[in-house]
Design a protein that fits this description.
This protein is of the alpha+beta class. It has three helices and two strands. 44% of the residues lie in helices and 14% in strands. A hairpin with a 2-residue loop joins β1 and β2. The mean pLDDT is 93.
Length: 63
């Protein structure tokens, strides 16, 4: 997922913060087995696999 997001960043600039859920117990409890998970503005965009369509839709809404 990270590699896919980095590729998207080359075409569309956005910030990416990577959080280790093992060091954030509240997030680990919230997302459980849905890791890796991509969240934007508190909303879950996708998990396990990158959904480029959802990410692009999200990015278009925040610009």
């Amino acid at each position: 997922m990270i590699a896919g997001l980095r590729a998207l960043q080359a075409a569309t600039a956005f910030e990416l913060e990577i959080v280790d859920l093992e060091s954030a117990s509240e997030l680990e409890a919230q997302y459980g087995e849905r890791v890796p998970v991509l969240v934007g503005a508190g909303a879950e965009l996708c998990y396990y696999h990158l959904d480029v369509g959802k990410v692009n839709e999200y990015l278009s809404k925040i610009r």
